[in-house]
Amino acid sequence: MLVFAAWHVALAEGQKASKRKRLVLPAAAAAAVKKAFPKASIEEVEREEVSLALYEVEIEQGDSEAEITVTSDGQIVEVEKEVAASALPKAVAMTLKKLAGGAKVEEIERVEVHAVLKLVKLAKVKVVYEAEFVRDGKEVEVRIGADGKLLATVIDDDEDDDDDDGEDGKDISLDQVPAAVKATILAHAGKNKIKELEVKTRRGRKVYEVEWEADGKETKIKVAFDGKLLAKKVKVDDD
Length: 239
What we know:
Number of domains: 3
Distance between the termini: 6 Å
Mean pLDDT: 76
CATH class of the largest domain: Alpha Beta
């Protein structure tokens, strides 16, 4: 039996690195998405843990796709949609052209910000406990309050993770990544041969996903554009 052991490091701005989960979207969140995009079909749902639950919903409407960030109570936070350079406002196009300096622009996204999340300092520190275990062949992640109350349960389908790893990514070489990213990759991979290196754009930021094998174990990491380690996953053979 193959088991995934995962470790997560906090993202910049206090967000946790997300893994794609097979989730049921809360009714209020689903209603908000349906109201905003009545003719769209939901293709994928992800849950992000910040100080509240955020759901990333991928939708298709005709030939176009979009990604919506929505809270569990139905507040749409952001809507992201890829657009062509020809669709940019003149002022935006001029600024982008100046910044790119002749370089080929790989991707442009239009981001609608509907709500802003604010950090509020708590009068008393809140402590929660997170744990991961394998049950019935599936990885389960739970959050438990200091009083023993179960706060959240997410079941990770390993097959979904494997299928999603190569999605919407662009293969690149180690020499093509920023120096800070390269340093982080080498610090973790060492002299092991890198099997796969992809760059993806998540929420407007580039994320580098790297895979290699060491001591018979498959290792994957995610690195932010500034070299920060976002996530690490080791696939071990639990015979």
